[in-house]
Amino acid sequence: MAAAISRSAASEALHRREYFFVGGEYVNTTTGTLRQNQMYVEKLTPAANSSQPYPLILFHGGSQDGTNWLNKPDGGVGWASWFLDNGYEVYIVDEPSRGRSAWNAAAGFPTTTFSVEVITSRFTATLNSTAWQQAKLHTQWPGSGVPGDPVFDTYYASVVQGIANNTEQEQAVREAGIALLDHVGPAVVVTHSQGGPYGWSLADARPSLVRALIQIEPKGPPFREEIFSSDYTRPWGLTSIPLTYDPVPTNQSAPLSMHLVPSDSANLTDCILQAEPIRQLPNLAKVPILVETGEASYHAAYDHCTVAFLRQAGVQVEHLELGKAGIHGNGHMQFMELNSDEIVTKLHAWILTSIQG
């Protein structure tokens, strides 16, 4: 049995909590009528009431749920409390078919869960990995990052299943996310990893309600996977499902033409961008966007491609590379790492600047 992690309840931000569900639909099955694709939303309001003009909506990544944003697995205070202490109203979701957003087995979509081997090799114990050059810089995960370490065991206990079909999952989150934005009103959307495509879809669908979009290492790069696979999974560049392009693509199965741009660095991957004629992303161009990348993450090898794709499509996006900003040693799960407060302070400053603009 792993050693217990000590926590201090007094260090958590005082707040009021509510929860509700958005989205979903009833389906007829052989066992009766069931509901699927609903999304659990936890609303946290500072005890002294919010002082920021817009709430935050936090979307987690693959095989994760909303607990990512709460306590850190080493017992430290997570980003939810940090944001509450700084006056934000916070909405935390469990995306459809995971966590408290129940999976409906009768829907027929298989699920997948990240194994210990995936988690350790990509997130928590990457220091000796040779899969990407920046891995050797990873110093901020608390503990050894492997089974038997109490911090790792606490974290891995939170890992959940998710729908294996990217298209179905993106569509379900898009519909539930639109319902959430319509309910909440203007908000700052923060996503992580697999949540990235959801952020693009929501900003595209509701550009007037997404007042700013922070993409923490969004799933990418454009069109195909890198590092661990080379599968082409995002025909719409940033997503598996349609986005608003101008001119409108006429071929829905292959909506964009692709052009390979070779890398000029051994530390960076080649990029696939659009070939001429280059289609624009007019709705995303209306939203202040920040892509943020940890110094030691596998995303450090290819997030520049996501940024280049956006700029090519007429989107003004800022790229916060933590290492270049003086914040060193972070992997993919940076909000759980030792210097997480240093990172979120940077994000807060960007939010204040972007919404004033």
TrEMBL record:
<dbReference type="InterPro" id="IPR029058">
    <property type="entry name" value="AB_hydrolase_fold"/>
</dbReference>
<dbReference type="InterPro" id="IPR050228">
    <property type="entry name" value="Carboxylesterase_BioH"/>
</dbReference>
<protein>
    <submittedName>
        <fullName>Uncharacterized protein</fullName>
    </submittedName>
</protein>
